[in-house]
Every structure is written in structure tokens, then in C-alpha cells.
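hi! just following up on the protien thing from before. the input was this:
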Amino acid sequence: MGLDPGVDASVVKKRYRELALLYHPDKNPNNKTAEEYFKVITQGYNILSEPDQKYYYDNMLMGYLERKDDDPAPAQTTYQTNKQSAAERIRMHKERLRESIIEEYVEAENTLPHKLRLILAILVYASGILMAYNNWFLNLLDMKVIYIILGSFLFGLGAYQIANIVYRQRVFKKAMSIQDIGPQKGPVRLFSFLFLVTPVLFLLFTSLTRTIHLKYFYDITIVDRLDQFREGVTYQYTVNGVEISRQAEEYPETTVNTILTGKMGYRVKFSRINPIISELITVEEANVLQSSK
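and the predicted 3d structure came back as:
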């Protein structure tokens, strides 16, 4: 129980409550090591909480320690003594580190369970992605920069919190199983994975959204205005009385007749669900699509 010999019964009781809070089976489901620890400290408390048994135990322990001190120790070299002393200091340091990890985790768990923390972090992470998605992809020509910045911040914060919580849970399980915790790399690896992989998934998601909208939920309208813009094309169209302006990287493949007729040779294929999602097509393509409906 980590108690000094002969401590008062009130100290025993206080220490037992602290350890029971850490190693109780309800706090550590499916953890055999914690279950065994709980049995040992409960057995120790049952002995030390009874005055007669505690008196007998303390006397036996003190007698053992006195006999141990009187036994002649084998001669050791200075090197062996220093080596043992260093090993003991390392062991004690690791033990204190393990105890501090467990205590900090349990304290945080009692304040707000880590499972709930993880759910909240995932919600922050997802809301950041959706905010950036809505104000970057869907409003490509009318970006609301403040929302893009805020969405990116929430996305990064959520990714870090997820990585940090997963890291703490992993270290806590190691500490509870009495494994050598050793040097830890922290949540950097998982955070880097989330931060680098998510933009790739984000771009795939935007591409899939565009494809589905323009394949299954499309309608066709005329082009109000068509201009050359640097190396691309700017086209304008009206849906439900709202003028919308979008860009295309290049003109779609056309016939000579389409080129000569200018904007009259093109149409806009847009999503009925979100008219901002659109693409520039030729009149020939529009006729084929309308006839296939």
C-alpha cells in the first residue's frame, strides 16, 4: 500500500480509499492486474484496520526489519554499490511516474469521463471540417474567409484533442498493467496522421459530392454571361431569381458552330439541391441530357 511501518489507522484508511479509487474493478473493467491489486490492498486494509491485527503485524514487521539490519551484508565494491543505487533511483523514478500518470488520469476521469471527452473532440473535429467544406468548396467564388479560418482552427483543435486523449488512454493502460512506460512520443504521430490524411479525404469527398449532384440531381439552364478569365472561363446563370457566377478551367469540347455562337452555344448544368454546384456544357450535351430524361 506504500505506507511507512507503524503509521496511524487514519492514514491507512485514507490511503486505502485513494488506492481503491484507482484500482476498483468498476473503474478498470477487464483489467486483471487492477483486479489483483484491488484484492491485495483490500486484504491489507482488512488487517491494518483491526487494532489487534495491526499491532501484531507492526511488531512482526519491526522485528523483521531489525533482524535484517543486524545481518552482515556481503562485501560489495564501490562500483556495485553505485550501480545498485542508480538502478534503485531509476526504479523509484519510474514508480513515481507511473503513480502520477494514474492519479492524473483518474482525477480527469472523475471530472469528465475520457469517452465523453473523445466524443466531444470528434464533434469539434467534424464541425471544423464541415465549416471549412461549406465555405470553401460550395462557395468557391464567394469564400467567407473568417469561417474558413475558424473551420480550420476547429479541425486542428479537434485532431489534437483526439490524439491527446487516445495517447493518455494508452499510457494509462500501460501504467495500470505495470508495463515499462519508457519514453513516450506523445500524441504527435496520431495528430500528424489526422492532419495530413484528412485533407486528402476532404478533397475526395468534395469530388464525390460534385459528381453525385451533377449526375442524379441536375437541371439545365441558359448562360447569362460568358467571359474569358485569365486561363479559365467565368460563366453566369440565374436560378430562382438569384444570379450565380462560377468558373471553369476551360471551355468544354465544342464544334465550330458552338464557338461562333458564343454563349448561345453553351448551357449550365447545375444541382437542384445546391445550384452553386454546376458545370459548363455544350448545347449538344444539353440536348442529349434533356432527351434522356
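The chain has three domains: 9-72, 114-215, 218-292.
The chain has a mean pLDDT of 76.
cheers
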